[in-house]
Specification:
The protein has helices at residues 16-31, 46-57, 63-70, 72-87, 119-126, 153-164, 197-205, 213-222, 277-287, 316-331, 358-368, 392-402, and strands at 3-8, 35-40, 91-95, 102-104, 113-116, 129-134, 137-139, 145-147, 168-173, 194-196, 226-230, 239-242, 256-260, 263-272, 292-297, 304-312, 335-339, 342-348, 375-379, 382-388. With 410 residues, it is of the alpha/beta class. The chain has a domain at 3-174: 3-Layer(aba) Sandwich (Carbamate kinase), CATH 3.40.1160. It binds adenosine-5'-diphosphate (ADP), aspartic acid and magnesium ion.
Length: 410
C-alpha cells in the first residue's frame, strides 16, 4: 500500500465529465489498496474569469480582496470532485486550504507555504477517505485567505506530499509529461522519460509553465518523488523528476528549451563609467521590491557607457518611473529607454557541464537565421538570450532542431 498525492490541473477538471474521469482514476488507485490525497485546481478558465471580474470593479485590485475572490475557483472543484467520488461509492472529504491549515506568509497573490497541519489528513486517510484539497490557497497566521501565484496548485500538491512523506506526487495535466520544449509551440517536441531536478528547476524558472517553480523547489528540498502525467490517457509513465544524474549519461547534452515573453528591457544610456553606478541604478529598483533578471554593461569609450537590465513586464512601468524620476538626473545619464517587445530563450541541460561549444552552437544557429542577440546570461547548466519577441518562435524551433531534440532524430 502506498500513499499517493494526485494533483489535477484546470483542464483535467474542466467539465463534469473530466471530474468523473478523475474520480474513476482515484477509484482505481483505491482499488489497488493505496491511500490517495487529491489536490485540484479551479476548472479551466475560472481563475482568469475571476481576475477579469475583479478588474472590472478595481482596475488594480486590492491584493487581499483579490485573493478572497480568486481562491473561490478551487473551492468549487473540491466539492464537485468529492461528490463524484461519493457517487462511485468511495468515502471522500473535501477541504479548503484554510481548513487543513496550509499556513502561508501574508504576501497576497504570491504567498509562500510555511507549514501544513497534516494530522487531520492522516486521520481521514486512516478512516478510508479520499482527501480532496483545494490547491493554490492557504491562510496566513491571522486567518486571511492567501493564494500562491499562478500555477500554485502544483506547489500545494508537492507541499502536501512532502508533509505526508507520500510515496509519490503525481501531477496530472493536459500533456503526458515534460517535453523538450512546449509541444504547443513545437509539434516535434518529445517527451522526456526523466529530467533531473536541477534541469526542471531551470526549465520552470525560465518559462516552462508545466510545473510552478516553487513546486520543483519543494520537491528538491524534501526529496519528493515527482511525476508529470496526462489525465487524458489511461496508461503511460509520464516524466519522472530524478535526483541522480547518472542515468543521464546516454542522453542528449541539452534536455530542453524554455522561453518566455514575461520580461521587458530597460536601457540607461550615457551613464558615467565609474564605481557605484550599478548600485545607484539598481538600488532604487530593488528598494521598490522589483526583481532584476539579466544585466549587461557595455565598455566605455568616452567615459560613458550603456547599462541594460530586464524586469518582469508587470513591473516595467514602475521601474521606468523610478529610473526617469529618481535615477536619471541624479547620475547624469543621457536617456532611459524601455523595450517590452523582447523574449528570453534558454537552452538547458546538465550535459553542458562536461561539453564545450554549446554556447557557440546556440549563437551560430541564431546568427544563421539573422536573429540578433541583445543580452546573454549563463549558468552551469543553461544559456539564455534575449531577442526580439517576433523571432521567439523561430528561435525555439531552430534551436530545437540544432540540438537534435526533434522527434524524428530519435
Ligand atoms: P495545468 O492546468 O494542468 O496545471 P498548465 O497549463 O499549467 O496545466 O501546464 C501544462 C502546459 O504546459 C501544457 O499544456 C504545455 O503547453 C505547457 N508547457 C510549457 N512547456 C512545457 C514543456 N517543456 N513540457 C510540457 N508542457 C509544457
Ligand atoms: N487556478 C490557479 C491558476 O489558474 C492555480 C493553478 O491552476 O495551479 O493559476
Ligand atoms: Mg499549471
Amino acid at each position: 500500500m502506498a500513499l499517493i498525492v494526485q494533483k489535477y490541473g484546470g483542464t483535467s477538471v474542466g467539465s463534469p465529465e473530466r471530474i468523473q474521469a478523475v474520480a474513476r482514476r482515484v477509484a482505481k488507485y483505491k482499488a489497488h489498496g493505496h491511500q490517495v490525497v487529491v489536490v485540484v485546481s479551479a476548472m479551466s478558465g475560472e481563475t482568469n474569469r475571476l481576475i477579469d471580474l475583479a478588474k472590472k470593479i478595481q482596475s488594480q485590485p486590492d491584493p487581499r480582496e483579490l485573493d478572497v475572490v480568486i481562491s473561490t475557483g478551487e473551492q468549487v472543484t473540491i466539492g464537485l470532485v468529492s461528490m463524484a467520488l461519493l457517487e462511485l461509492g468511495l468515502k471522500a472529504k473535501s477541504y479548503t486550504g484554510g481548513q487543513i491549515r496550509i499556513l502561508t506568509d501574508s504576501a497576497f497573490t504570491k504567498a509562500r507555504i510555511l507549514s501544513i497541519d497534516e494530522q487531520n489528513i492522516r486521520a481521514d486517510l486512516a478512516n478510508g477517505n479520499v482527501v480532496v484539497v483545494a490547491g493554490f490557497q492557504g491562510v496566513d497566521e491571522k486567518g486571511n485567505i492567501t493564494t500562491l501565484g499562478r500555477g500554485g496548485s502544483d506547489t500545494t500538491g508537492v507541499a502536501i506530499a512532502a508533509a505526508l512523506r507520500a510515496d509519490e506526487c503525481q501531477i496530472y495535466t493536459d500533456v503526458d509529461g515534460v517535453y523538450t520544449t512546449d509541444p504547443r509551440l513545437v509539434p516535434e517536441a518529445r517527451r522526456l522519460k526523466t529530467i533531473t531536478f536541477e534541469e526542471m528547476l531551470e526549465m520552470a524558472s525560465l518559462g516552462s509553465k508545466v510545473l510552478q517553480i516553487r513546486s520543483v523547489e519543494f520537491a528538491g528540498k524534501y526529496k519528493v518523488k515527482l511525476r508529470v502525467l496526462s489525465s487524458f490517457e489511461e496508461e503511460g509513465d509520464g516524466t519522472l523528476i530524478t535526483f541522480e544524474e547518472d542515468d543521464k549519461m546516454e542522453q542528449a547534452i541539452i534536455s530542453g528549451i524554455a522561453f518566455n515573453r514575461d520580461e521587458a528591457k530597460i536601457t540607461v544610456r550615457g551613464v558615467p563609467d565609474k564605481p557605484g553606478i550599478a548600485y545607484q541604478i539598481l538600488g532604487p529598483v530593488s528598494d521598490a521590491n522589483i526583481d532584476v533578471d539579466m544585466i549587461i554593461q557595455n565598455v566605455s569609450l568616452d567615459g560613458t557607457t550603456d547599462f541594460s537590465f530586464t524586469v518582469h513586464r508587470n513591473e516595467f512601468d514602475k521601474a521606468m518611473g523610478i529610473l526617469k524620476n529618481q535615477v536619471q538626473k541624479h547620475i547624469g545619464a543621457r536617456e532611459v529607454a524601455g523595450d517590452s517587445r523582447i523574449a528570453k530563450v534558454s537552452v538547458v541541460g546538465v550535459g553542458m557541464r562536461s561539453h564545450v561549444g554549446i554556447a557557440s552552437k546556440m549563437f551560430r544557429t541564431l546568427a544563421e537565421e539573422g536573429i540578433n542577440i541583445q543580452m546573454i546570461s549563463t549558468s552551469e547548466i543553461k544559456i539564455s538570450v534575449v531577442i526580439d519577441e517576433k523571432y521567439m518562435e523561430l528561435a525555439v524551433r531552430v534551436l530545437h532542431k540544432a540540438f537534435d531534440l526533434d522527434q524524428e532524430d530519435l
